[in-house]
Design a protein that fits this description.
The chain is mainly β. The chain is built from no helices and nine strands.
Amino acid sequence: MYRAVTRDIEVTVEPNFLPERSSVEKQQYFWSYTIVITNSGRETVQLRTRHWIITDATGRRQEIRGEGVVGEQPVLGPGERFEYTSGVPLPTASGFMTGRYQMVSEGGEKFEIDVPTFSLDSPEAKRVLN
């Protein structure tokens, strides 16, 4: 599990390789990832946008920006949490993702929170120790 905290908002990520949706022969690898966003602060906030940077094992970067997550722009009061699962394909057996969410407070202040960088590893990925 990966974890980041920004302004009392915790984001945890748990990636999961899906062999049944992957094919070594076709160089298609697929992961799901479950994200939990927990508001430990004192004010209500809303997730407005997402910005992902996805990097495969060859260093190829892909940036994705969009409204909300999984079609929602959740509002989180103090102590509330939002959980969702999404997925990502890669042409390589490993890679990583990182990102940010734009939030807005009850008072209208916009700010960004970090999504922790997380590793996408399949059983086919060659391990390299530095």
